[in-house]
Structures are given as C-alpha cells and as structure tokens.
Amino acid sequence: MSFSSSSYPYDTVVYITDEIDGQFWQASGVLIAPDEVLTAAHVVYSSTYGVATDITVAPAYNLGTTPYGTATGTVIHYNPISDPNNEITTQQSQYDYAVIHLSTSFSTLGTMGLDPNFQGGLANLTGYPGYLDGQQETVQEDFTPNPYYTVLDGSSIGAGSSGGPVWVLGPNGLPEVIGLVSSGEAGVDSPGFFSEITPAALAQIEAWVAQDNPAPPPPTTPRTVIATPAVLTLSLSTAMVIAGQMGAAWQAFATVDFSGDGHGDIAWQTNESQVYDWTMNGDTIAGLSLSDGEMGAGWQIAGTGDFNGDGRTDILWQDNGTLAIWEMDGSQLSGFGQVMGGQMGAAWQVAATGDLTGDGMSDVIWTNNDGQIAVWEINGTVLAGFGIPSGQMGAEWHVAGTGDFYGNGQTEVLWANNNGQIAEWTMNGANLESAVVSDGQNGPAWQVAGVADFNDDGMSDVIWANGSGQVDIWFMNGANVTQSVMLSGQMGAGWHIVGVKDLTGAGTPDILWANASGQIDAWMLGLSGDLVTGGNPQDTFTFNQIADAGMEITDFQPGVGGGVLNLQGLFGSIGYSGGNPLGDGEVRLVQNGANTDVQVDAHPGTHSYVTLVQLDNVAAGSITSANWRF
What is the average pLDDT across 446-467? Predict the structure, then answer.
C-alpha cells in the first residue's frame, strides 16, 4: 500500500524501543491521546524478566529519522500476561495490551479512536516489522473473531510489529483501533493473533488513561451520589498450592461449610467411605479432622447440601437407588438417616442438589439417560415429596448444577450440552415452570465446572474449565450471558476443579483445584467495582435497586457529621416492609481487612446477602445510626 508515514493517520503509529533485563527490543504502538500510546503488554513486560525501562517512542519514524521528535515513557499500565520463553498463547493474547504515558504531548498530531464492536472483515494493519529496518508498513487483510477467545485471527507482518494497531475507518471517517498485534506462529504471512478491543478492554484502557490525566478536584460541598449498576472487574489475584497433602487414596469431593461460618472448607473421601475435613482460613489449613462416621461397601458420596436447614453443609450418600444423609456439625455427625419411603431404579443417578421448594432445605435431583429428571423434596432425612417434571431434554444434555440465575429466590436447574450450550429450567418443587436455552455457547472442549455468584449481583453465574486448566466465567442475568471473563491463570492437564467457595469471607467465590496426588491449589479471586470519591465528609450515597451493588467508596466518613447511606429506595424495590433493617438482619456489616462491606438481604427473610458497597478504610464498629437512611 502506498502511503507516507508522516501523513495522517499513519503518523499516529509509533516506533518503540525499550530495555528488559539488559536486552533491547523494538516494537510498535499507536497514539490514542497526545500523551498516551496503546501497545501490546509483552512490549513493556515479561513474565520471566520483568518490566521494561528506557522506553522511547517516535511517531512517524522512518529509516532513522524522527520528524516529530521522541518522547520517553514515564508511566506504564499493563496486564501481567504469561509469556515464558517469549511465547504467548492464544488465551493470553486476549489480555495483551498496555498503555504508555509519555513525557511529551504530541499535540500537533492526530490520534486513533477505539472500536469495541468489530464483527470481522477487511481492516488495516500498521507497524514496524524488524526486517524493514525502521520502515513503517501497512497492509490490508481479512480479520475474523476467534471462536474460542477474544482475539482476532489474521496474518502476521513479522516480529517488531508487536503492539501495532489493526484499524478501520469509523462511521465518521476517522481511524479506530479494533485490535493490536500480539503473536504469530512463524514470521511474515504466518497465522497471527491480535488482541481484540472488547468493551472490557476499552473500559480498562480508558481507566488507565484517566489515571494519567486525573479529573479536577472533587466538590467541597456535600453532594448526593446516585448509585447505578456497577462496572465490575473479576480477576485472579492469588494462585498457590495449599501447604498440605492427602495420599493418593483420598479424593477431594467438594468445597463445603460444615461449621456454618461462611468460609469454605475442603472435604475428602476414601473408597472405604471415610470423610476427612480440612478447615480453611483463607489459603491456610486451620484444622484437620476425620469424621466419626463410616458407610459400608456400596455407598458413594453423591453430593452435598443443607438438608435440615441449619446453615451447615451435609453429605448425601447413594447406594444404587437408595439415599442416606449425614447431618454435619463441623466434621462430626449430628444426625444420620437413610431417606425412607423412596427408591429409584437402576437407570437413575443423583445429578445435583438445590432448594427447589424455597423451604431453606436442599432437595435432590435425579436424572436418566433420556434427559428426564426426578425431584425428591427433602426435610432432614425424610422424603417429603416426589415428582417427575413434564419436560425432557435430549440425550446430548446433562444436568450441570443448580442456581438462582434470575435473582428472585427461585432455584433453576442448569443443563449443559456437549457442544458448549447451557439451558435453564425454572422449578417450583417438582413442577417445571419454564425452560430457556442460553444465548451463549462455548466450544466442545469446555465443561461446566460450577455455579456461583461471582459478580455479587444476587444472580448465579457459570464457571467453565477445559482440559488445559483454563477457566472462563460467564456472568449471567437469567439465561443471558452479560459478560465472559477469561481468567489469566492456567493449571496443567492433571488438575480439575473440585469446588467453588469463598475461602476468605471476602464475598467473592474462590476456585479449588485438586490433582491425583492429593494436592490442592487455590485460586483466590478479586472483584473490584466502581470507585467513588465523594469529596466531602457529609456526602449522601443513594441506592435504589440491588443492581446498584458493586460501588466502592474511597473516602466514606463514619459517625455523626459523616456520610449517609440512603437505602430507602432499595428496600422499597425488594419488598421489605419492616422498620428496622439492621435489627431484622436485612442489612449487615462485614469487616473485610481494613474495609467494611455493607451487605443487603436481596430477598428479605432468606439471608441471601449481596455486597452492596465497600467502604475503604472504615471499621464496621465506627458506623452509627447517623450514617443510615432507611
């Protein structure tokens, strides 16, 4: 393509040099603001060698000449991708973007915008491939969205073009970046992978730019902040092997809460029907104990649940079509009984547990190979009801779990298809009220690994895993996938997810992996929400709906003369009619390190708590009645 690197928009593309651990590198990037360059994360960071130094940027560089001068990078923002031996997987290419804040503002040059809605097609690729020795190149080619990851598939123009923009002309005729050069298989014209500008990437990039260009000082007079549905970011904050190991004869079968303290514990079993409990305190084993019960030959653990409504996890055993329940108090049995009055045939297997009747006690879901389910309504160890719903899924579907995907206190049965689709059955006891197939689909390499509320909106989400140890989390609103979050970590092929449970009490579920050697690896997840700085000790923060959950207030002032949390509209929206939400347990304060989480019962009377707002550096005990408006 014929062009001049010093004419717009090609003069927005920059030539980058930097140093990482004594090695000098050359790459590409693009001006997205007069003092901000967008490039690839691996240009400024190596998981093996660390962060780049001596970053120099030259717009419109051409064979050694710098028509607009150069600038140095003073601040860098990047995703810490994994690139061992300078090799980047397609999964990691999803996060391969960074922003460099410059010492000099190129105010006489133009910039490129960002487009998070590219659907595939012809686009431009511009960069400085090394084999051209400092000459800029632009090619046009077809780019297609990758079916498994948020990357674009295309052809590489060679090493040195990393961080260069893939761009199109937008509706206004101005250039917009749709992706960045991330990796290629074998040099020029080989398959290349390009980090896609998604809505989530756009939000992160804009947040980085905002950090470099802070807003004017906040107002000094009290104001009212109206909460809106938050933009939440879920990330892998810590991954570590827990310092404890069971022998190969033991298998971790679930994350549980035998004590009812709200923290996840890890339960193990042997072929001899013994159960061992690791009581956890975060990622540390706080206690080890062998249960005082033992089942005979033929019995296998079929699941867990709270079958007597005491807030503690119980264990469900199955011997062919017969069930028994261990009611637990810590690691010890508080009650035991075979579920009398019912027996299923050999074609049926326990598939899941969940409270389908809304009585606070888990029920048992059976399934057969024909896509039917049967429901046993359980009260303690008593079979209180039985039914087979009228619906039926095909043989390619299987029950993958249960959850409250609509946030209405009603339990749905989650089905998964071998092709990566999911469907939801809304249940009322054993009655099927509705069935919906989700609008999302993962490839056949992915399997549902659990159900939990990862974004704290009161609605269950779905966690997927593949055989390579990667994790994809779908934020759900009913059957609609509102966001897909691919976590940055990856476990080896010998690991599998055994449970999803909050180990720390921070309110965000964590992921527990196990291998055949009896080791456990914990992935501690972090959820960050909208940061709000009021600017005045007497600011009022108003919440009108549960969907407003996710705010983080950086400067809330507790006590008389301090800030106010106005929850009047919120409690009206969820149907709470009492006069004392604190006394009724409809709102509670949870100390989370130095911060306080304000949690609200999303369904009054059910203790289905959702973290509404985090108050940074506030002690729960310092909040008084002056800080509330109900």
Answer: 89
* Element of type H or E holding 39: strand 36-39
- 561 by Cβ neighbours in 10 Å (0-12 / 13-18 / 19+) ranks as exposed
Q: Which residues pair with 273 in a beta bridge?
A: none
Our measurement of the distance from residue 57's CA atom to the centroid of its chain's CA atoms, rounded to an integer in Å, reads 34
pLDDT of residue 250: 80
pLDDT score of 236: 60
Q: Is the pLDDT of residue 602 over 80?
A: yes
DSSP secondary structure string for all residues of 572-591: HHTT---S-TTTTTSEEEEE
Pick left, alpha or beta for residue 584 (phi over 0 → left; psi -120 to 50 → alpha; otherwise beta). alpha
Which residue pairs, CB below 8 angstroms and at least 24 apart, start in 3-8? 3/138, 5/60, 5/61, 5/62, 5/135, 5/136, 6/60, 6/62, 6/67, 6/68, 8/109, 8/110
pLDDT given for residue 609 in this prediction: 84
Asked if residues 454 and 464 have their Cβ atoms less than 8 Å apart, the reply is: no
Peptide bond into 9 cis (omega under 30): yes
pLDDT of amino acid 153: 96
The C-alpha atoms of residue 531 and residue 627 are separated, in whole angstroms, by: 19
- CB-neighbour burial class of residue 111 (10 A; exposed 0-12, middle 13-18, buried 19+): buried
Q: Is 17 left (phi over 0), alpha (psi -120 to 50) or beta?
A: beta
Question: Could you tell me which of 193, 161, 189, 238 has the C-alpha nearest to residue 88?
Answer: 193
Neighbours of 94 (CB within 10 A): 24
**Which of 188-197, 229-238, 250-259, 555-564 is the least confident region?**
229-238
* Residue pair 588/565 in contact by the 8 Å Cβ criterion: no
Judged by DSSP in three states, 331 sits in coil
Both structure tokens of 143: 């780019």
What is the distance in angstroms between the CA of the first residue and the CA of the last residue of the chain? 65
In angstroms, what CA-CA distances link 419 with 396, 445, 524? Answer: 9, 8, 29
Residue 223 clears pLDDT 90, i.e. is over it: no
Which residue type sits at 554? T
Kindly give, in sequence order, each residue whose CB lies less than 8 Å from that of residue 303, ignoring residues fewer than 6 positions away: 254, 316, 350, 352, 353, 364
Q: What is the pLDDT of residues 377-399, one digit of tens each?
A: 999 989 999 999 988 888 889 99
User: Mean of the pLDDT values across residues 94-102?
Assistant: 95
In the predicted structure, residue 307 carries a pLDDT above the cut 80: yes
Q: What is the rounded distance in angstroms from the CA atom of residue 471 to the CA atom of residue 543?
A: 33
Average pLDDT over residues 169-184: 91
The answer to whether the beta carbons of residues 126 and 154 sit under 8 Å apart is no
Q: Which residue has the tokens 């990667």?
A: 470
Q: In residues, how long is the chain?
A: 630
